[in-house]
Amino acid sequence: MSRVQIPFLALNIFMQEKWYTFKTKKQPNSTVQLSILFFSKKISEVYNEQLHEIQKKAILKGFRKGKAPSSLIEKNFGSNIKYETLNKLVEITLPEILSLTEEKPLPYAQPEADSSLNIDDLVIGNDFTFTCHFDTHPTVVLPTDWSTIHITIPNVEPQLEDINQELQTLQERNAIHFSKQEAVTETDEIHLSLVELDANGNEISNSKRSGVKTKIGESIAGYTVKETLKGVKKGETLTMTVVTDTNKSNSPTTLQVHIEDIKGIDIPDIDDEFAQDVSATFKNVADLKQDIQKKLEKKIVPLMDGFIQTMALEELYKRVSVIVPKSAITYQLHLMWNNFVSQFGQLGKGSDSKKFLQDLEKNKDKMLEHWQPEAEKEAKNQFILYELKKQFSVSIDDNELKTKLSEHYDASKVDELYDLYKNQDMLDSLRQSVEDTESIKLLQEKITVTKNKNEHLSIKKFEEYIQQKKEKSTPNETP
What we know:
Elements: H1 8-15, E1 20-27, E2 31-38, H2 40-57, H3 70-100, E3 112-113, E4 128-135, E5 150-156, H4 160-173, E6 176-179, E7 189-197, E8 209-214, E9 223-225, E10 237-244, E11 253-266, H5 272-278, H6 285-319, H7 326-344, H8 353-362, H9 364-391, H10 398-406, H11 411-423, H12 427-446, E12 448-457, H13 459-473
Parallel strand pairs: 5-12
Antiparallel strand pairs: 1-2, 2-4, 3-4, 6-11, 7-8, 7-11, 9-10, 10-11
């Protein structure tokens, strides 16, 4: 009779004594309940290890460090030893279990013990059931026929207003700036320094800022100005009432502003000489306009692709039902808040930054409540994208990732940029972003897109249209 040969690795697994069994149960709202039954033998083993560790460090009256008897240690630290025992059991068991389960925890939602946990139920010598729960990827059912997603787009082409806007940008870029003594006008650039004043008219420490640039009608370094700067001259000092752009409901702040300089602007005329100044390859204005026309036509392609992709995702969002776990919404709110503080917290650098951040924190709960619908929408979109990637089998390895980077950056910088992301532990985030982009491109290829023959827009009008749709779907940052 021939002998059955068991591979060494399989033999190891077969001979290893298991110290637990487990079962999972799906709960509402994309939550999974995990119950682990720990066997008494392993519990006793780990308990004695933890008891020994605490005994070595314990200092009890009448005993030198590490010399108190076990019975006394258990009497004084019994609950702590049990907690440490349970923590150790979970620590050595959970990763193995999660590698075997079909449902995985979301990366930002680690398993949490049930609130019913009572450490006194852990009795040495008996088996013990530990129950926890975690949020997992919700079920996402995508359409089976992508062609049913129908997007109608306008006809977009460069028009006179687009060309004129580009010419105006070139004029401003080639304008000559000069200091002037006369009163400021609408087109002038104002250079100033400022400091906040308290109720008694005294300067607030750490609130001075210099090198600030603004124009009539614009905000000043993040402050909305209630008085106009029209008519001021170089060298003047004035006080004015302002509120911060980030929270206009705040009580007004008084600023003392010193006009350091007023820069007039000499705008060049659009003529053949101007065209030649822009580029030596142009002989006249006609050449310049023709070049602008070509560049604008190229601009339409990515602009339209982005519009189609956004509309396709919006349509998917409407069609696909997703039960978004609470932890996913909380995570999105966390990202939104951090981004908000990072973006607008810069305004506090030249003033009392501590006070500024405290003001933000006071309004945090209201702002998070206001952002809740957008956070839920973003979380839902992320789950839809996750399912898209699976269905389209999108997976980017390191070499493909570098290739994608080379499409946007100079080839000599790709390795450096890749290493930068890697060293900052952001490579997975970059990879996910690239995979999302590739999935959306594939989605665009599969849906039905038609042009509205009766709708013709300039690039400027099309960009305004896109912005309006974005503003309708995104809540304001402050309530």
